[in-house]
Amino acid sequence: MASNNVLPFYHQKALNLFFNKADASTENIKLRYEKMRSVYYQDRIQEALDLANSLLQLNLKSMGKGYLESSILHYKGGCHTQLGEFKSALACYKQITEINRVNNSAWAAITLIYLKLGQKDKAEQAANKALEIFPDEKQFDFMRIELNL
């Protein structure tokens, strides 16, 4: 499947709405979100980051209990990570934990970024927080091994 056909109908509809400066209706937000995801998985990272930033400027509260905002922040954090902008990525993941303190993938990302930055003490603190919330989560085995927890 060609990368441009990831979400052909919605992809084109999202592009049309985005570039024609459509309103911030629920449908438009969903389409722009799908566009962001689509370009992210096509490794068009800067474009995905720009879309994430534009989405975060909108009032997303009408879309649910922070789920959409958290998801956009995950993609934004992933973009920053792939661009080597680890401090910006860290800010995204920390913002997710402010929205939902039990978001296990955000805590995992925070731990990994602190390790990448060489800040083992902070990585241990983040890992301990994650393990406190999710003591039996197999996803965090890497933390136990890497940090000797």
From TrEMBL:
Keyword Lipid biosynthesis on entry: no
SUPFAM superfamilies hit by this protein: TPR-like (SSF48452)
Keywords, alphabetical: TPR repeat
PROSITE patterns according to UniProt: TPR (PS50005)
SMART domains attached to this UniProt entry: TPR
Segment forming the signal sequence: none
UniProt TPR repeat ranges: 104-137
Keyword Coiled coil part of the UniProt annotation: no
Protein name: Tetratricopeptide repeat protein
